[in-house]
């Protein structure tokens, strides 16, 4: 089902302009792009706003697509590689537009509001001459965090965190294995000790029996002696 967005009017720099509203809360970079272009006067919704004051997502994407093509005509006096690169980038952007109705996948660094890993998502803004910024900045007074993060991107930090957790889990598993082995060895040692003690007792019993038997023999001999 095609999403529909309410269109409203506002005053901007002394003139009436249209802007598009979200239908649900959450990120919607495509609407942000549309509103920037509307405020600049570089996009018009004429002919695509329905009587009830709504615009469909497909029509909105089509208008932005047209704007991309208008502002990025084929390069003149460019090499074959440059021309193919531009065509490929535009194709990738067109494929990405539908996903920009629900979010934007970017990889930021934390020292500058415009520091992003360059991806197709960033290319959308570049080709429309829109500056993309973020708000994830480090506190320069937090020297320890600054030292740990350095110039790493968000994705690089996540990878480091996953590796660190993997090391912790491995160490925990190793300690558990050592504990089980030690417990098993203690059990075997205890069993060996019990067996040894039982063996010693078995060896001692015949000697005691022999001694007891000899004593009884001597006593009987004394009783059987004749009395003068």
Automatic annotation (TrEMBL):
GO terms for molecular function: cysteine-type carboxypeptidase activity; cysteine-type deubiquitinase activity; K48-linked deubiquitinase activity. GO terms for cellular component: cell periphery; cytosol. Residues 209-221 have a biased composition (Polar residues). Residues 177-187 have a biased composition (Basic and acidic residues). Residues 4-188 form the MINDY deubiquitinase domain. GO terms for biological process: protein K48-linked deubiquitination. InterPro entries: MINDY, MINDY_domain. It comes from the Eukaryota. Residues 177-228 are annotated as: Disordered. PANTHER family: NF-E2 INDUCIBLE PROTEIN (PTHR18063), UBIQUITIN CARBOXYL-TERMINAL HYDROLASE (PTHR18063:SF6). This is MINDY deubiquitinase domain-containing protein. It comes from Peronospora farinosa.
């Amino acid at each position: 089902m095609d999403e529909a967005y309410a269109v409203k009017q506002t005053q901007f720099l002394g003139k009436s302009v249209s802007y598009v509203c979200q239908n649900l809360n959450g990120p919607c970079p495509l609407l942000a792009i549309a509103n920037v272009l509307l405020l600049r006067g570089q996009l018009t919704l004429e002919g695509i706003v329905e009587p009830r004051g709504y615009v469909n997502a497909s029509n909105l994407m089509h208008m932005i697509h047209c704007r991309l093509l208008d502002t990025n005509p084929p390069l003149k006096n460019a090499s074959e590689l440059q021309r193919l690169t531009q065509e490929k980038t535009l194709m990738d952007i067109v494929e990405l537009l539908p996903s920009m109705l629900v979010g934007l996948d970017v990889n930021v660094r934390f020292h500058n509001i415009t520091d992003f890993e360059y991806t197709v998502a960033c290319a959308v803004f570049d080709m429309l001459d829109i500056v993309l910024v973020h708000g994830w900045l480090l506190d320069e007074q937090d020297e320890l965090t600054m030292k740990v993060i350095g110039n790493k991107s968000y994705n690089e930090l996540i990878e480091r965190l996953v590796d660190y957790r993997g090391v912790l889990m491995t160490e925990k598993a190793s300690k558990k294995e050592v504990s089980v082995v030690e417990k098993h060895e203690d059990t075997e040692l205890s069993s060996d000790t019990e067996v040894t003690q039982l063996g010693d007792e078995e060896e001692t019993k015949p000697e005691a029996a022999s001694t007891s038997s000899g004593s009884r023999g001597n006593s009987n001999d004394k009783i059987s002696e004749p009395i003068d």
